[in-house]
Amino acid sequence: NTVYLKDYKLPEYLIDSTKLHFELQPKGTLVKSQLKVRRNPAAGAGLPPLLLDGVELELLSVSIDGQLVPASRYQEIPAGLSIEVEKPEFELEICNRISPENNTSLEGLYLSNGMYCTQCEAEGFRKITYYPDRPDVMSKFTTTIVAPRQYPVLLSNGNEIERGATEDGRHFVTWEDPFAKPAYLFALVAGDLQRVEDSYTTASGRQVTLQIYTEAKNIGKCAHAMRSLKKAMRWDEEVYGREYDLDIFMIVAVDHFNMGAMENKGLNIFNSACVLASPETATDATFQRIEAIVAHEYFHNWSGNRVTCRDWFQLSLKEGFTVFRDAEFSADMNSRAVKRIEDVSLLRTQQFAEDAGPMAHPVRPDSYMEISNFYTLTVYEKGAEVVRMIHTLLGAEGFRKGSDLYFDRHDGQAVTCEDFVKAMEDANGVDLTQFRRWYSQAGTPVLDVTDSYDEASGSYTLTVRQSCPPTPGQKEKLPFHIPLALGLLSAEGKDLPLDEAGNTQLVLPVTEAEQTFHFSGFAEKPLPSLLRGFSAPVKVRYDYSSEQLLFLMRNDSDAFNRWDAGQRLAFAALGQLQKDYRNGKTLQLQPELVEAYRSVLRNRDLDPALVAKMLALPSEQTLAEEAERIDAEAIIEARKFARHALAEALKEDLLESYRRLHKDKPYSPEAADIAERSLKNTCLDYLCATEDADALLLAQQQFDKAANMTDCAAALAALVNYGNETDVDKSLETFYERWKVDTQVVELWFSLQSGSARWGTLERVQTLMAHPAFELKNPNKVRAVIGAFANRNFAQFHRTDGSGFEFVAQQVIALDKLNPQIAARLVIPLTRWKKYSSALGEKMRQSLESVMQSGKLSADLYEVVSKSLQ
Ligand code: ARG
Ligand code: ZN
After folding, report:
1. Which residues are CB-contacts of 216 (< 8 A; sequence separation ≥ 6)?
2. What CA–CA distance (Å, rounded) separates 172 from 163?
3. Whose CA is nearest to atom 8 of ligand 1?
4. Per-residue model confidence as pLDDT tens digits over 200-215
């Protein structure tokens, strides 16, 4: 059954207050809920039955205004409960029982390592009690938790208002959240937890208590998250004028979690992997991810909680906007260009692939079977690009006026993407009518750009054609409003003035299928720098020569485009290598590419983190996304050859850089230090690609002596990819013995092996699944072993006999019985079979078919598999 946006109806009943009472038991938790129900005057006349959502609940009793309701006046239906209504306002009391211990879906109330926790977004609250589980029903929650003393910490949203003992020796705490909220923002935690505490003074001088809760053994890993939280709180005040609104803000780390984290009001719940870090156990990438996710969830307090979504089709209203906010925060805290490169790389590989695949959908989808499947790169990442384009069109000040109006106008409401765009328009007196197509049309637009220069008049003309491939359910697309940021370079590599005012960069409004832009006053033909900063989520085609790309790599004043020019050059080279490989020719790397990389490596004026990015060849996944038809073998061989050839040619320079950057200094997650480590470890990895004994010795030494996990893991990865087999096995074992007490490091250890083309052979991955530290019920472990194999181990996953696909299909089938959300994610690499060369594509389709035929699938998995087989 499919839900459609066009069928949206106002809720028939409103819930003015929600009083919850929990008595926690692993197998039989009692839930009592008291609701002040009122007929929604806006929804029409009469008193239709009250429909409450409920899934896997054991109903115990229903009372209205203190009277037990006879069973004849309510009915348990597949979706929940239907109750006859006699008056427009009444108090409803429902008692039901649930079993947190048997809840492996990690949705609703469940147990993780002996601690109770909840995950309600999107539709998990209905697994706790009967309720109108939709975001446009907002209610004030009061929550009482009763539990045995072995759970000393009892948390929920808002402020603690009471605590005490029960007669039978248990204890209770009552929490009250003064802000009306939808049920998806409800949270409860109970466990034997330790906490670190800090405080924050808001711009207006209010004191806020900040707490991070974890198991005792992880208490030393909270400092970075706390620092990040305080930075995020300050940033939101400075950049958006948004202050925190409760007296306490809590974060809890949980080991079993389907996603990264969740923004429950006043009580954010995090996947342990996205909050806990110490220099000895976490890599730089993890430190940066934690900073971003802590900020993301905190920012939701305004973009998501104070102003929430009317329905789940509007998910990008809060997610696209909040991802944009956290990306800007990270850019301000670290290197802006590097952050942009990382985000665009993700978009280009994963989101573009989604846009081109069977599950393609607009930023605001029109329909879904299972909403969990729409927490996608399109809704999140492309949604953030859409908000960024509004920012680009309005400028920082205009955007701030728009966001002020949006928060002011809609505080306390559940609204739509349309309301967001309208606020931006109204605050700036602009018309974004055509721009709205970004919300309704799926697919990645393509810009074909050509240019001409007239010597006699000195004028330069740019012609832009836009098109967008068809996507499921959308054959024809109307032109998008695309902000195309442009610079023009002189032969000296300087930015030329583009208009009377002397601006050297303009944002061209591309709104038609074909459009020309005229510029004048040039003594020679300028070189265009197109889509600077990746000003729109599109593909740009322009016939650059290698010389022009090399020139842009050296001279473009836009750091992003400098990197992008290098990527284009590498793409062309790798494309040629793939062709040569298929035709059985001897492979040879273009000398220009080698020299370009050499001069990047020698350029001391560039941020080392940017140098590291510029030295990285496009990933196999990126090459696959760009290919018309995926020839996995050619991609693998071409890339492997190019890496090796670059490493051989640049050996001296790489070694020089490695030595210069390999410093013995205490770890800090500051951007400058991260930058140096990233370049150093990039050099190390290239050096090891030569498989020279000296290089491998460097890696071994770094592994043996490393004082932080970034250096340790980078060295181990290089050894795993290039080292001698017996030595590597020894290092892997040493590593495991040293770190087996630490869950997160064990996950890293798993993924290093599963994700390695060389080490993560299918047979080895199967052995890892039998390892005592592996747990199919833990999504982080599943992602570390099976996910890393399917998404990062390009060679093994694409084994020509199809055994890589079969393996993943089998795991998907097994997982679907435990955790449908995770099964539906894991199957995605199998869904793009149409893009593969026929033999491999057919094997992939067959494994997908075997999932379909395996029995009754969850709604989550069924939606993805059935749509992909069509
Ligand atoms: N709102 C959370 C976040 O992005 C994610 C919740 C994911 N829930 C889900 N069912 N997929 O911050
Ligand atoms: Zn979010």
Report:
1. 192, 193, 194
2. 6
3. 121
4. 999 999 999 999 999 9
Q: Answer whether 210's CB lies under 8 Å from 197's CB.
A: yes
The protein residue with its alpha carbon nearest to ligand 1, atom 1, reads: 262
Return d(Cα 532, Cα 856) in angstroms, integer.
49
Site residues for ligand 1, CB cut-off 6 Å: 121-122, 259, 261-263, 296-297, 319, 372, 375
Residue 365 CB neighbour total at 10 angstroms? 25
| Owner of token pair 């069973």 | 71
- Kindly report the number of other CB atoms within 10 A of residue 732's CB atom: 17
d(CA 779, ligand 1 centre) in Å: 14
Q: 319 to each of 185, 384, 440, 653, how far by Cα in Å?
A: 14, 8, 16, 43
Q: Give SS3 for 415.
A: strand
Among 413, 374, 112, 385, smallest CA distance to 257 is for 112
Give the C-alpha separation, 572 to 588, whole Å. 13
**Strand partners for 506:** 486
Both tokens of 797, joined, read: 């996953």
> In what helix (H) or strand (E) does residue 262 lie, and over which residues does it extend?
strand 261-262
Strand partners, 162: 174
Distance 318 CA to ligand 2 centre (A): 7
What phi and psi values does residue 241 have, to the nearest 5 degrees? 65, 30
* 266 dihedral zone (left: phi>0; alpha: psi -120 to 50; beta): left
What is the number of helices (H) and of strands (E) in the chain?
28, 31
Among protein residues, the one with the nearest Cα to ligand 1's atom 11 is: 372
Give distance in angstroms: CA of 111 to centre of ligand 1.
19
Does residue 61 come out as left (phi exceeding 0), alpha (psi in the -120 to 50 range) or beta? beta
Residues with active-site annotation? 297
Q: What is the pLDDT of residue 539?
A: 98
**Residue ranges of the chain with per-residue pLDDT less than 70:** none
Pocket test for ligand 1, best of 256, 375, 379 (most atoms within 8 A of CB): 375
CA of 373 to the centre of ligand 1 (A): 11
Nearest Cα residue to atom 12 of ligand 1: 262
Q: Check residue 449 and give its pLDDT.
A: 99
Cα of 242 to ligand 2 centre, how many Å? 17
Q: What are phi and psi of 488, to 5 degrees?
A: -120, 130
Of 238, 562, 663, nearest to 672 (Cα)? 663
399/432 Cα distance (integer angstroms) = 13
From the CA of 264, the nearest ligand is 1
- Measured from the alpha carbon of residue 375, the closest ligand is 1
Q: Which one of the ligands is nearest to 270 CA?
A: 1
Beta strands in 511-558 (DSSP E): 514-519, 527-530, 539-541
In sequence order, what are the beta bridge partners of 2?
A: none
The Cα–Cα gap between 315 and 203 comes to 30
Identify the pLDDT of residue 523. Answer: 96
pLDDT in tens, 39-80: 999 999 999 999 999 999 999 999 999 999 999 999 999 999
* Ligand 1 pocket test target in 55, 257, 262 with most atoms within 8 Å of CB: 262
